[in-house]
Amino acid sequence: MAQKSRFRPSARPAAKKSSAPPRGKKPTLSERERSTRPLREDLVLQACLEAYALVRHEGRLSDRALDFTLRRKANLYSSERRAVAERVYALLRRQRTVDFLLGRAHPRFDALDATRQDVLRLATSRVLHGEPLADVARTSSLAPSDVSALNALPQAAAALEALPEKKRFPIAASLPDFLAERFLALYGPDAARAAEAMNERAPLTVRANLLKEDRDALAKRLAAEEVESKATPLSPMGLHLETRLNVFSLTSFREGFVEIQDEGSQLLGMLVDAPPTRVVDACAGAGGKTLQLAAQMKNRGDLHALDIDERRLDDLKKRARRAGVHNVRAQLIPAEGPEVDSALEALVGKADRVLVDAPCSGTGTFRRKPDARYRLTPQDLEQHVARQKLLLERFSRMVKPGGRLIYGTCSVLREENEAVIEDFLSRHPEYTVRPVAELLGAELGAKVGPGPYLRLAPHSHGTDGFFGAVLVRAK
Q: Is-contact 406 355, C-beta < 8 A?
């Protein structure tokens, strides 16, 4: 099937990927044998169907659905478990495209039972991702009429190509109509490339814990654990892991030398430029950026990590202990109401830096959370924007004269980013924007692009989509 690049991610077929040894140790002979055996396609298909059904028919989050399914499939080889995850994620990224093609390639697709539809969806996704049609047909338990539908996919793809741009783009990009409209407005001629990059598999990226050692030392440490890596092109502390594996099983992870963190997230953390005085991470979550800020502060000063979720703060405390971080003060705060002001009163006007990494639509993370695009509605987006404005207003009170307020999201949408900053500045003339290139330096600033804000995207930077703004309060 000859598709144009917008229909086919660059990821290689899951079935052909090699398996990394678990737990960071040298594989035994039996483990090597298991990792090189052909996939037991019947078991892989069954696990894919179970995980996919949990996501699309029961509404579970993709990562939790896969974790739930794979925990019950203890008999799967590591290569098979990886194939299940990659095939389910690949289908979720291309869901709308796949359904359009099957609706035209199979005359009775809508009338088929749910399981047979899902088998066809998984098979079609594998073809779109470059697997030979004959191999897919042979290993997917397809009826003859379903094999005929796979053979008709090129004609269905041609029908999609023939649609007018406004109708074609949402289907080819596998985006809801309202998000497709925003992508077209935001990226213009680059919209197809941007959507294509959002539908590729994200790299596995980690950050060196600079409290313990630098990136080069970490790369050598990982190599000793038989993990290949390469330096991230933008972040000076990041590594892309070339070996696909469970990072949590590595000795380097258990001993606190490494944290999983996208390169874009690392750059947002760099904008804080946290001094060893008083810094606030206002939406700390499980603490990925908190630990990065602690390293910037060299474990000195007071780093206040605030969140409304006690479980995430408990995770942060565990991660801080593993990383050797001692300057974090985790604080559970109310989600809303007058109690919030009381909980934050002691920090009003006291912080040199306040990071508001605001909850958002997550449109920049569709590579990692492909099902999120189908859950998001225009009403959800409006609620996100309202909350972002509220949070920025609330936590700006903590910034002392001459201090900095850093706002960030993992969204690419303008209404969650520039529009929120413009709204805030219209009501706070005491704040001015500091261009991010001044903080990142001339060389890195040139790489992230022009403009006063940090705006990252997979197609232009290879990172997740991130936005960052630095606002300075007048003295």
A: yes
